[in-house]
Amino acid sequence: MTITEAQIEEIIELEYNIHLFKVKSPEIANVINPGEFLNIRISDLPIPLLRRPFSVCDVEDDFFYLMFNTMGMGTKLLSLKKPGEYLDVLGPLGNGFNFEGDFDRAVILGGGLGVAPFPYLTRKIKDKKEISTFIGGRTKSDLITYGLENIHVSTDDGSYGFKGNVVELLEINFDNLKNDKLKIFACGPTPMLVAAKKFAEKENIECELSTECVMACGFGICQGCPIQSSSDEDKFLLVCKDGPVFNSKEIIL
Amino acid sequence: MSKVDLSVNIGSLKLRNPILLASGTVGYGSEISEFIDLKKIGAIVTKSISLKPRKGNKPQRILETSSGMLNAIGLTNVGIEKFISEKIPYLIKQDVPIICNIAASTIEEYVECVKILNEEEGIHAFEINISCPNVKEGGLQFGNNEKMVCKITEKIRAVTKKPIIIKLSPNVSNISDFAQVAKKEGADAVSAINTIIGTAFNIKNKKPKLKNITGGLSGPAIKPIALAKVFEIHQKVKIPIIGIGGIMNWQDAVEFLIAGSSAVQLGTVNFIDPTASLKILNGLMDYCKENKIDNISSLTGSYQLD
Predict the structure, then answer these.
(1) Which of the residues A139, A192, B6, B131 has an alpha carbon 20 to 30 A from that of B250?
(2) Of B59, B219, B271, the CB nearest to A221
(3) B interface test, pick of A50, A89, A213, A223 with most B CB neighbours within 10 Å
(4) A68 and A162 belong to one structural domain
(5) In this complex, do A224 and B76 lie within 8 Å of one another by their Cβ atoms?
């Protein structure tokens, strides 16, 4: 965990309003793992005041990648940055995916911008494991395929691929997958994570969920990002420090 | 040039410098110590501790607002037992003075906490949280009521000789009346201000953005209010003041000292830059050198009104 000034090398517009920043930082790139995140101070001024958390999208040599869309003031100001400018980066933060385990095929589920952490995970495991990726969005323009492999697609409005949500898409493809030893990695809106957790538990598949919560510090001092522990009713875990990736059995969504 | 004396006295509490880390913004010190050497700061004010552990409020607990943030954490803490067995020994090893912040639902609970913690040699002082806006019981119901502040201070004074700091709420009409009561009952100092009650609504579903509905506003947005409260107390009551409220840099810290503070606490800024305390300390040192100030305590209340 360090604070560092990292220079923006390149900015790629993936889709309308989906930005990919390539940022140079050996300090971060050499140590960060898939599923971990960075808390970025967008301005020296108090606007926006707090850092903004972003999961690491990919890593290549001394560079890390961030994928984001313009949602509010923070991402709006970030999107206005130019190559050559510096970012004040705090990280790596949190616990990422456990992808070394005993499974043959990674089932990756990404809802909307929830695909963001998966290019890096895909890069790390593609030589060792089979991968099936399921991505979903409200409509065709929400679908982001950057850095993913063996992709199946769903849209809520049926404008592209399967009409329905990404977990339903997994269910109809499940017969082709179930002979492999599977592990699910999911990231996306909470209703999607709830459905993924339910499916994984019904089929008795290991499942890791990358969760999200509004936070201030990103490393445990503000206590702003609680998530209910499943083993202890009286305990909240922290998304920033205990997560953001949890085994689906650890938490109640 | 002679060395600047940064040490300050807050009643009987002597600190090596006036930069303190505010309660609830640095936990029990372990995370922030990855960024700063705690030995260098004046003191750490630990996260409010209560007799039993508290789970805190459901999310959403945090919301950014214009130059500020709302929080409704709800006094999440490990409880006094674990605080004594795990947290105090860690901080003693870091060689940082500990000011222990205490929250409670009843007067008896405050007294019980102080009695127990009074035995801990590592604790240098108590800060009494009578002003948390985010819990149903305790907190503000005490901080809004002069008689309660009177009783709490009196009862705690009876069970400890360690310095007592009463953390005042800004959510009252005359904060100096509360400082006066604290002084009369034997408090050594007051800290001002705790957060200001605020809220926000989602205009799509019309629900409050915070699960607790209201939260406490902090950050640069509240600095002018905090300065005015510090100034009010300084003008009306002879009691050391620890200034708190939106300090982001050394210039802000100097302003608080000028307005009447003997020391300051840093809160929200720790979330944004966990090294801010050391930068502010260096800035204070340079300011003193440049302005030929030998003793930082001479800045306290040095405002020039025509």
Answers:
(1) B131
(2) B271
(3) A223
(4) no
(5) no
Q: Give me the CATH number covering residue B264.
A: 3.20.20.70
Q: Count CB neighbours of A81 within 10 A.
A: 16
User: What are the pLDDT digits (tens) for B13-60?
Assistant: 999 999 999 999 999 999 999 999 999 999 999 999 999 999 999 999
With 80 as the cut, is the pLDDT of residue B141 above it? no
Name the residue facing B59 among A3, A221, A226 (closest C-beta): A226
Total length of chain B:
306
For residue B288, indicate whether it is catalytic: no
Q: How far apart are alpha carbons A117 and A188 in whole angstroms? A: 10
Taking contacts as CB-CB distances below 8 angstroms, the residues of chain B near A238 are: none
Q: How far is A226 from chain B (nearest CA, A)?
A: 6
Which of A69, A70, A66 shows the shortest CA–CA distance to A32? A66
Residue B1 predicted with pLDDT over 60 = no
Residues of chain A contacting residue B25, judged by C-beta atoms under 8 Å apart: 221-222
Indicate left, alpha or beta for A150 from its phi (over 0: left) and psi (-120 to 50: alpha). Answer: left
Residues A20 and A113 reside in one and the same domain: no
**pLDDT > 90? residue B123:** yes
Q: If you ran DSSP here, which 8-state letter would residue B22 be given?
A: P
Q: Supply the range of the domain harboring residue B174.
A: 8-57+73-200+218-299
Residue A88 sits in the same domain as residue A119: no
ipTM of the complex: 0.94
- pLDDT higher than 70, residue B88: yes
Query: pLDDT at residue A6 above 60?
Result: yes
Rounded to an integer, the average pLDDT of A3-15 is 96
SS3 content of chain B, % helix, strand, coil (to 5): 35, 20, 45
User: How far A113 CA sits from the closest chain B CA (Å)?
Assistant: 21
Across residues A124-137, what is the average pLDDT?
A: 97
State the residue range of the domain holding A133.
Answer: 105-210
In a domain, residue B287? The reply is: yes
